[in-house]
Amino acid sequence: MAQNDQEHPTPVDVAAEPPRDSAADAARADLGAGEPAAAKEAPEAVTAPAHATGHTHAGLLAALGIVFGDIGTSPIYTLGTAFKVGVIQPVPGDILGFLSLIIWSLIIVVGIWYAIFIMRADNRGEGGIFALMALAHRARPELGTLIAVLGIIGASLFYGDAVITPAISVLSAVEGIAVAAPALEPIVLPLAVVILTTLFAVQRGGATKVGGWFGPIMLGWFGLLAILGLKQLMLYPGVLWALDPRWAIAFMFHSGWGVFAILAVAVLAVTGAEALYADMGHVGRDAVRKAFAFVVVPSLILVYMGQGAQALADPLHGHDDPFFQMVGPHFQPILIVFATLATVIASQAVISGAFTVTHQAAHLGFWPRTDTRHTSAAERGQVYVPVVNLVLFIAVIAIVLMFQKSEKLAEAYGFSVTGTMVVTSMLAFLVARGAWKWPIWRAIPTVAFFMLFDVGFFLSCATKVLHGAWLPLVIGLLLVFIMAAWRMGRLRLAARRRHEGVPIKIALSALRSPRIEHVRGTAVYMMEDPALAPRSFLHNLKHNKCAHQQIVFMSVQTAEEPWVEADKRVAVEILGEAIALVRVRFGFMETPDVPAAVRVSETMGIHVDKKDLSFFVSRAHLVEGEEGGFWTWLRGLFIFLYRNQADPAEYYQIPPGRVVDLGAQITI
């Protein structure tokens, strides 16, 4: 009876179930719907995870190790890139102005906007573009289409960042070898490739196995940055004038159109801002804020001013790789090793973030099911997605070999990050108006002020499209195309199902027919729509002329929140004698466990014959229809993605020997 074309039930929006016969309303409600990502080796997901309530007691070490790797390694290449591309010269006016711009960007964009305002928009402790999108949709459901578009754009740009960050971080650290020993410059590129290859190879084992070292290493790293900065400040204390924001204003004002080139480099210092919000769920909001205020920003300000002091004290040579020039030749190898460790940690954070974003996107209906594996029994957010790991590895190695120098990669860096920041600010405005109930006179000026920085950085990076920024743009557009095809295809498929479907109460009336034989055991039918009879159930009645003695229709729903409490997870509705509808809710950070949900339903009065228990799942065999227009360009891609998504039975953690696959052809 098993067929090759199997489809899992499509979870529906828990905030508002779609009307039974309205495709337009279905599209509106579909934002919360998702076809979840397949998972292996996942812990039982029927109980709410400990981290659902937020890691309010997480320490500074955890925050330093998980959140601040990206922004903490920016000093390695930011000021050096500014000198190499010629946006500043080793003269006091340029250096003080540029340093002031960096310092106040860190304070305003990262410290005030993200750490204070954006991090207020937590979705039950979770952050990131999809968590914010779910909050915005819950607050302003009438803007569902706009919010979905923003979510797709923001997520697509994030992947561009995930490709460039490991490349530029590791490459810039290893380039210190050429500073310490110019004769070794030929080994820089091969060594960077080896380090990156090793980094991606160990992802299968999970970040938690080495994550315990991340915090102490990053604490030592930030301590080293502060010490190096203080040492140089003693040589040239006049650089402290950079703390005056008037230097930044005057510097930009007198730069004319060159201000765009300046901002395109200055943004390198704040590229880790989005990580504060995206990784909030791992360590807690308070830990992130305290780590930034008491460790990160003081160390970064000191090391940036220290590099500026180094360049001003030695105008002839101090600006040539100013970061590694802050120590003598004997200490440079130690600094190179430490910098490499820090950049590996920064790369690990963004790679893990790509896995998490893919996991969330699949749950929320923006991405096909993917083979997702949990790598930690203690941390529910730690996942590994093999296909994402492979694609990222190929892309990262390709751009390292393509650009070869960190200053060339810097031309491409920033575009995707600043684009995500703009999207985040737009969604934050919707949350402020809808969820926080800010009046218009407060919301517009506040968000507009901070968006002035985001938009300024984004436009500056956009001017570098021909010089390298085309790379994240191409990656982003490709992913936007894929996500749009998947989302549009799912909406059309759901509408087709509703048009052709049979209401469940009408289908149940067929059980009274004398032609239907009732066989022993329990059948669990996974539902595509809780209002319609599963096609596998109809198939059984029509072709096999049989029904089980106990029938459970199970509807798996994806909530617009990361975690669902155990007492709110399962709801049971009795449809008839030995017939029940079980609605199960999972958060978009969770992995559904259908057998565990069945066990919970037993405690609520549902009888299950464990010896004769079968799970019926449906798969649609999609064929192309004759409809034209823009959908023609996306239809083939959607069908390809649909046919190659991960097996739903594995995702639901159903024992293979108890699965029955039944399929039907659908034209879209």
Describe this protein's structure:
The chain is α/β, with parallel strands linked by helices and 668 residues long. It folds into two domains: 56-488, Amino acid/polyamine transporter I; 503-667, no CATH class. It is 55% helix and 10% strand. The strands form two sheets. It has a six-stranded mixed sheet with strand order 6-7-5-4-8-9, with helices on both faces. It has a three-stranded mixed sheet with strand order 1-2-3. A hairpin with an 8-residue loop joins β2 (372-374) and β3 (383-384). It is elongated, with a radius of gyration of 27 Å. It starts with 22 loop residues before the first helix and ends with a strand.
Topology at a glance:
Blueprint: H1 23-29, E1 39-40, H2 60-66, H3 69-73, H4 78-84, H5 92-117, H6 129-139, H7 144-174, H8 176-180, H9 188-201, H10 208-235, H11 245-253, H12 259-266, H13 273-278, H14 280-283, H15 285-313, H16 332-363, E2 372-374, E3 383-384, H17 386-403, H18 406-412, H19 415-434, H20 440-462, H21 470-500, H22 504-508, E4 517-526, H23 535-544, E5 546-558, E6 570-576, E7 579-586, H24 594-602, E8 613-623, H25 631-644, H26 648-651, E9 659-667
Parallel strand pairs: 1-2, 4-5, 4-8, 5-7, 8-9
Antiparallel strand pairs: 2-3, 6-7
Helix pairs in contact: 2-10, 2-15, 5-11, 5-15, 6-7, 6-19, 7-9, 7-16, 7-17, 7-18, 7-19, 7-21, 9-17, 10-15, 10-16, 12-20, 19-20, 21-25
